[in-house]
Amino acid sequence: VTAARHPMSGGLGGRLAIPAVVLLAAIWMLPLAWVFAASFKPNEVLMVRTDGLLSPPFTLRNYENLIGTSSLLRWLANSAVVALGQTALVLVLSSLAGYGFARTSFPGKRWVFGFVLAGLAVPEQAILIPLHRLFAGLQLHNTYSALILPRLAAPFGVYLMTQYFKAIPREIEEAALLDNTSRLKIFLRIVLPMSLPAQATLGIFSFLTAWNDYLWPLVSATRPDMYTLTVGLASIQTNFAQAEGIGFLMAQAVFAGLPIFIVYLFFQKYIVAAVSGTTVG
Amino acid sequence: MTVPAPPPTAVAAPAARPARAVQRLTELPAPGEQRWTNGLFVAPFLVIYLLLLVVPLVYGLWLSLRHADLLGGTSRFVGLGNYLELWRDPIFLGAVRNTVVFVVMTTPVFVILGLALALALNRPGLLAAALRAIFFGASVLSVTVVTLVWRLVMMPDHGLFANLWRDLGRSPVQPLAIEGLSLAVVAVVTVWWIIGFPMMLFLAGLQQIPRELYEAAALDSAGRWRTFVAITLPSLKRTVALVIVIEVVLQFQLFGQAWFLTLGGPNGSSRLIVQFVYEKGFREWQLGYAAASAQVLFALMLVGILLQMWLARRREVTP
What we know:
Structural class of chain A: mainly alpha
Shape of chain A: globular
Radius of gyration of chain A: 24 Å
Oligomer: heterodimer
Number of strands of chain B: 2
Distance between the termini of chain A: 12 Å
Number of strands of chain A: 0
Strand order of the largest sheet of chain B: 1-2
Largest interface: A-B, 126 and 121 residues
Radius of gyration of chain B: 24 Å
Order of helices and strands of chain B: HHHEEHHHHHHHHHHHHH
Largest sheet of chain A: none
Helix content of chain B: 55-70%
Shape of chain B: globular
Helix content of chain A: 55-70%
Number of helices of chain B: 16
Strand content of chain B: under 5%
Structural class of chain B: mainly alpha
Largest sheet of chain B: 2 strands, antiparallel
């Protein structure tokens, strides 16, 4: 969303609004800033007091412990495998299906499309228990397949790609169709390259969803070595003990939040577009 | 987004017009002739969709009609027995009440604060962009990072909250451990986490207001307040409605914040519907009963989603 000057932004109210929002933003940042600062303080100090964080002593011990003793790196790797795998598969499946629905015709297309769109209304909680039984029956829990597969059935990507492909002018394909080029070739060589902006939006959306997913991974990955970062961080909290070291907990919070924050900084434009229901052109 | 994993419909909402999409597909014949081989494009997704969404959905409905206790190893058909039991279960009714209270507490905040932020930050410049990024930034964090941060903030004696409270000269309190307050703290954390989401929806709505409307108002030398009431608010009516519906649907699915902050306590005062499903299904392994409670949640959300589609359609009728 790019902001154009709004007629409401001038005047006294407009001038007062920004300082007020700056103040609110400072309050908003305070919890994160406090945790970030505390993560660089020795644990012995934090056990006594957690104010005055900006004065020494500082230490990197909490982060050293994190690399040495915790499973955070393993969980980070699991999250990366799951999020990247899921994103790649969502893009492939959604692009193919989106093209099929938007640009080709086959018997019963209208009904199949309506049937798929109806799935948009199904929340994950409604199928959580049966899905868990199915994967248990197949003995797939605690595998990457179990963590990746269920989200592939969500029709959002298909819906998004269908809308996008429909907006591409028909003339582009018609010449190729007259030449008797196969549908698959047209899709791969002509239409797919044009859809990069939509791929980016859907890709970043899928990645964030997969990375932050917790309900399904919480019930499916029960072995600590198969936790994703989100579930791993949950396990730290269920045995929440200050004795474990406040500084260590602070460092884990920072470490776990950082990767996705970096992703956000790089892809902000696409994330905002995905959220406000548009694509970046 | 995390956005806190919004339901797909919620994300697509501003553009989502499934009913019309179906219609348009048939109106506008795609290039090329009709061939069944074209269906192969759709087939891979369709197989996954059938196996991992449609089959579980039907299986879940079937389970909800059975008394299926995994630990006891029993499974028999009970018809609507589970649903009748839910209707009389004080724990379930408490969870429904808590969820409704939570939605009623947070939705006005999302609308009013989200709109206020959007109005203040709908301007060019680096400062406004940075502020937008700050308010939206928290919503990409996963729920467990958010709750870990806030559990540290709310730590007794040592937390940021305890420090500030002490600086004010008050005797120590632990809001998360107080029955009347724990749900309110969960609400505060939730607002902190995803306020950027309604803000972005309002920003998108503000930018769709035609400039000519404001120019006309300026020619009439209408005051700022008058312009706001006569032009901005009426133009945002549908966005407001959309934000309300999206938030209601989203917050009905709330689980993580309450679970990781309070475990639903103290004394069940912050137990929500999804936690009930989780506890019955994955702690007590009463699969039929849990599946039935999930169907109730599904039904409640379906009402919200239908409302959302109706709003999206109405928007088209009166552009």
